Amino acid sequence: MGRRARQLGFTVALLIAAWLWWWEPVPAPPLPPGSEPSASRSVASEPADDGEAQPGPSKAGATAPPPSAACTPHAAASCHEGDLYWLDSCGVVGELKESCQGRGCAADSCKPARAAHNACGRTSAYGECSGDVAEACIGEQLVRVDCASRGGRCVMTGEGAVCMPRDDAHGCKGYEPARCEGDKLTLCVDGRWQSVDCAARRASCSERGASAHCEAPTVVGLAPLGLASEQCNDRDDDADGHVDEDGACDEVALVAFVPEGAQLANLDARMTEELAILNRVFAPTRFRWARTREAPARYRVFEPRHMEQAASALGQSESRYQAPGKAASSGEPGLPFYVPVLFAEKLKVDPPKSGMSTLPNARCGGVRVSDAPSPVSGLIVLTEARQPETLTHELGHYLGLCHTHEQIARLAVQADGVELCERTGDSICDTADDPGPPGCFQAGQCELMCRDGSRPDPFNIMSYYLGCRRVLTPEQLAEAARNLTLRKAWFRCQDPRACPCDPKLKAACPAEMSCHPTGSGDAPWWCELDGVGAPGTACGDASQCSARAFCLAGAGSSARCVRPCDDEPGCTCMDVGLPVRVCAQDLR
Ligand SMILES: [Ca+2]
Ligand SMILES: [Ca+2]
Questions:
Q1: Which of 444, 494, 509, 534 shows the smallest number of beta carbons within 10 Å?
Q2: Residue 586 bridge partners (DSSP)
Q3: Cα(332) to centroid of ligand 1, in Å?
């Protein structure tokens, strides 16, 4: 089929999609065992201009009006979001005719099953290291990169085989066992030695069992404190007398950033398709492309080391909360919240990767994966090598989801009071165990054979089984929704001057932020993201403290995370010459 015909087919699919609100939602594709259909879906987006009242997103279980009697059902079949659906004689999409099992479709038929053994053999997109040679299947071709010839080494990371620079001081291979150094856990993560401070988590480092880990006898739970933020739930969450105000139920804005001079193929069509997948997978949460902006040309080939810096620049440039003298380049008013999405040509990574994202406060599945302070801002970077669902996968990371093959047990505090599924795997209880692509072989397009007998779900968006991914579990969706609320609340605090606080208040800052001294006269206290340090534990600076605590040097002892005191149980208030009294117990 010619290119023009394909484009036409795509346009037709979109026109049909725009009419779906009137009929019934497209049924979800058949789901693998263990998953559940997402609560609702609706393809309605922009209000039509005919003046008719528009139905909102359909609620789960709502009944749709019956198709018009004048239209004959099952008149034809059409490819829609990778599967075949029936069309009636009026061109309206009906129920699923045939699932293409992740192979995709063209016109009115599923694409043929790919040979199980293509040029890549058993090597997946995730790839493998053989010595310092990285091998990965990129576009059905086996790509081999000799990392050593470039002065590097091959490392198995959470994103598969990657060439990394040699690093005699901090480099590791990945199979070295974790060990305890005092109360610090030392382990190899993504090719570098990393330190996890068990003491800061009020845990101890234990070498009991197969590998060292942080261990606590009981869960130390501190009630989450923070300003209530308005969520889309028909309730007045922040008790200001208004329900779901300030756009709590609006579509979430995505801002596309395109580097100056970037060569990007079919960008508009790809963005439309990517948004449709995003809205189907994250339903009922909805997203929209709010605006497209130019980014510096140096981001055409994106250097992952610049992630934080780029996130801070692109995460603020379209914001309503501008630092003085940094007015938005365009005349448009700043947005109260948005997700920056950078369309780079490629990432400066070998073998090539399709995208990357920051995690919210360095957490995935609710577990902190790094002790380093985390930037408030987030960023998603997509490359030309991406799959249609890569944006959805990266947004999952942006909203705090791990890969399904994550091994969070390495980093999570092991405590009896916490469910095993919350401190192992991806820390989500309703996802299937996934040993990851190296341990599983794609025998058919979406049929996995795993060495250890596991039955991972190749259809999960957060997996690495490319070509199959299309769903999130209810618990993944709940964790993503929780993090969306947090990210919205944190957004203004990208600029500390937009986020002053009063340390005397219990709820001074958004959840998971604490009121910390800045050391500056004009804005003495501001909300900063929590670190790993529990109250009463040692700290180097305020960014390491959590649960309302800030870092205070005691007389003759090391600095501690201390809470402001308000005569609450367990705290004796103590005057230390600051505007707030502090909890004496935290300084002991
Ligand atoms: Ca409210
Ligand atoms: Ca609400």
A1: 444
A2: none
A3: 26
- C-alpha dihedral (48, 57, 395, 30), degrees to nearest 10: -110
Residue pLDDT, tens place only, 87-120: 888 888 888 888 877 677 777 888 776 554 567 8
The CATH number of the structural domain formed by 256-489 is 3.40.390
Q: What is the dihedral of CA 478, 419, 434, 339, to 10 degrees?
A: 30
Opening angle at CA 132, ends 126 and 133, nearest 5 = 55
Q: At what angle do helices 474-490 and 390-398 cross, to 10 degrees?
A: 60
Which amino acid makes up residue 402? C
Distance 248 CA to ligand 1 centre (A): 9
Residues in a beta bridge with 538: 560
Q: pTM here?
A: 0.82
Enter the tokens of residue 358. Answer: 């920051």
What pLDDT score does 256 carry?
98
For the chain, the residue count is 588
Q: How far is the CA of 84 from the centre of ligand 2 (A)?
A: 38
* Every domain of the chain and the residues it spans: 3-110, 128-165, 179-216, 256-489, 499-587
Going from the Cα of 241 to the center of ligand 2, the distance in angstroms, rounded, reads 10
CA distance 224 to 166: 42
